[in-house]
Description:
It is a single chain. By secondary structure, the chain is mainly alpha-helical. It contains five helices and no strands. Helix 3 packs antiparallel against helix 4. The two termini are 20 Å apart.
Amino acid sequence: MKKATFYLMMMVLSLTVIPTTIIAAEKNPITVTSNTKEVPENVKKMLSRLDEIKAMDKSSMKSSEKKALRKEVRAINAELRSTGNGVYLSVGAIIIVILLLILLL
């Protein structure tokens, strides 16, 4: 146990002691161009339909009409969620990745 804590402390200290100015090099500035992603046309249509439904006056509607609108909103939201191309990592997965990196490096 004492060896593990000693190695951990030495690793942390060795990472903090390395001066960053040695690694720094003078480089030409890079211009950043903004890559704005185009929103697909079908997504725009779905979002505009959601805005229309939100703006509706639902007080004069029957309960069956309200129920149909709720189903439509849920379907649109589910489709919008499925079109997202994001990668989601849980906290447990991040901890496992960090531990693997520590063990392998």
